[in-house]
Fold this sequence. Notes:
By secondary structure, the protein is an alpha/beta fold. It has helices at 35-45, 74-79, 111-121, 127-134, 139-146, 150-173, 177-197, 203-215, 217-233, 238-255, 260-286, 291-311, 315-333, 335-381, 425-428, 431-446, 465-479, 491-494, 521-533, 539-563; strands at 2-10, 13-19, 24-28, 61-69, 87-95, 100-104, 107-109, 122-125, 388-395, 408-415, 423-424, 453-457, 483-487, 499-508, 511-518. The strands form three sheets. Strands 2-1-4-5-6-7 form a six-stranded antiparallel β-sheet, with helices on one face.
Amino acid sequence: MLNELHIENIAVIERADISFGRGLNVLTGETGAGKSIVIDSIGAVLGDRVSRELVRRGADKGLVTAAFDVGGCEQWLADNEIEADDELIIQRRITADGKSSCRICGAPVTAAQLKELAALLVDIHGQNDGRQLMDERRHREYLDRFGTYQDALDTYAAAWEKYRSVSRALSQLQMDEVEKERLSDSLRYQIEELERAGLKSGEYDSICARRDLLRNSEKLTDALDQAMDALSSGEDNALSMAQNAAYYTGKASAYASELEAAAENINSAVFTLTDAAETLRDFRDSLDFSPEEYNELETRIALLNKLQRKYSRDEDALISYLDECREKLDGIQYAEERSAKLRRELDAAAKDCAAKAAALSAKRREAASELEGRISAELRELNMPSVRFAVEFSPLEGEPGFDANGCDDIRFVMSANAGEALGRINRIASGGELSRIMLAMKNVFAENDPVGTMIFDEIDTGVSGIAAQRVGEKLFSVSLGKQVMCVTHLPQIAAMADNHYLIRKEERGGRTYTDVLPLDLEGRKQELARMHGGDNITETTLASAEEQLRACEKFKQERIKHTA
């Protein structure tokens, strides 16, 4: 339930603090006074799209704050890690440049989160609902919302997804022959080219290193020769000198033990130099600088570079790509076999889908029969005594006879008057009849709807007289189970209110201001008198208003007693 609404700098409302109550809350006022601004503000705080035009001229920001009962939202709050005390406080701030921010109990949230929460709190009926009722594509959604066969919907959805998946796979196989041949030729060429290259993982780095070695062979040989000459081959080479030093130091250590360590170190150096000399000699002897090998390496590297540039892949990726090409070619060559298998799977999926669609259709027809009776009863209470409301089923045209939603084409039809044939709602229903049909549906759906507040904007379009009285009575009946808010210009509806608010617009200091005023009994009489007779309020219109309030109060007490 919506308890409090604070509006600040929204359109022509500079500031308004509204305390709503249980039951039927009605907002009235002259045309253009700003009644819908209150509803728009509620929509804004519940995540509707907003623009900078909503901010009052001259203000740098607009603010809407709403306080709701927490009941019914505990799980959502827990899932979103938001803590709430006794009340759920929602705030929407809109800046003059059109940016907005949302908070729930002080925690910043996205507009999408706000919309999720709104679905648990409020059901708003506006002009768009009437347009949806005119759109026959939405009628199936209304029926499914009423029905209690979610398991059948889920089962069919799974069957449809299986059918669609197999159908999509089959379509991908069934390319035309020209495209199939073109792709096969391309794959064969690439496979032959890559197989001819004889790709090996790690080869590129290895042959590049060998090529670089061969490229510097002359410098390498010269350096090795110089090193070997200095170490062991030349006159006065390092190894000979070290051996002499070791010999004489050894003799000296026989006379002076302090030199034994030095002798050992020199001997160790001799062994090290000997090993190094052997390593240099072995490496020098192993060198084979063949010009033919160098040319072969250059040719191989050029080929690998060409392939890597052509296919935009490195060496290992080229090897993987070759495997992919082979698999694709195999796939095309075995497409007919796979296609036959998929056709068998598609036939089975189609039969399963058709069976589950038929089961879903049976559930829908059961629900439709109940919905027809419920809506017709509601409409008779709304001063449409001869109305007939029906849900019309027809099979889907064309193959396979079902789609994502089942096998039924569903539309609502009605006859408002005795003796008239059933016709499509979007062709024969007047504005007033549409309003009452929508109210009837809202009332029927409300029984299974968890939201605690229902808001009706322009539910009285095209309604007057006794029909308006019946709409008011129906709104009150709905309000016995939920909080109801209604914007109306009809006194018959306003007189049924438990809480009545006057939306008043006036000019002060060259600016337009809209105020929201809760009305007491005397205020309600004045407002009802104005709604009956305009600004010329007389004793007669006041007496009529008072009588209307008494009659409505009597009806309300009787309805409460009957409901209890």
